[in-house]
Amino acid sequence: RAAQRLNEQRKREVKNGTYRAPQHSRMTVAQYADDWCAGRKNRNSTREENILQLHVLSRAWFANLPISDVSKKHMLDLVHELQDTVSTETGRTLSAKHVANIYGLVRTMFRDARIAELIDRDPCEALPKKTISRKVTTKRLPYSLEAFAALTGNANVAADRVVLNALAFYT
After folding, report:
1. What is the rounded CA–CA span in Å between residue 118 and residue 2?
2. Helices marked H in 18-70 — which ranges?
3. Residue 52 phi/psi, 5° resolution?
4. Residue 139: pLDDT band by 50, 70, 90 thresholds?
């Protein structure tokens, strides 16, 4: 069915004179990511490039895919792999927030590829709900009585800070 719909859409585009042949259809995800990162000028661009290299482009199965062939299934597989990845710094799996941040960067990259008309569809659109969660699973423990006393009863702490610390304790 999808092939028939696509065929009908292409026929309409040809008839209306709006058909544009896909450009760079054999460009891989890694090639596009390199070009995309080189063109980014935001203050976090170096960090974002490092994140892409470490968590996304290090996966050869994903990096070597032609960008036009990336599907929602590939994105789900990437997310599931990220969720199972063990951090070299902590020895634990990546946090849900970190996975969501990595996915957000990849989603932005594919959105830009769609805008540049390098791909026909965005593989990040409409992933199943709750695939990506930003919720932090650890609860913040309240201050102990000793910590509260140290924050409010220390003579070296300015009076205005003591008041702020006491208010923070009760919120």
Report:
1. 20
2. 29-39, 45-51, 60-63
3. -60, -45
4. low
Q: How many CA atoms lie within 13 A of 127 on its CB side?
A: 21
SS3 label, residue 59: coil
Short-list 161, 90, 97, 93, CA closest to 135? 97
- Cβ atoms of 135 and 98 within 8 Å: the answer is no
Residue type present at position 162: V
Task: Please write the tens of the pLDDT for every residue from 17-28.
Answer: 776 665 555 799
Q: Do residues 108 and 56 touch, judged by C-beta distance below 8 A?
A: no
User: Can you tell me the distance from the alpha carbon of 86 to that of 121, in angstroms, rounded to the nearest whole number?
Assistant: 31
Task: Give the per-residue pLDDT at 47.
Answer: 93
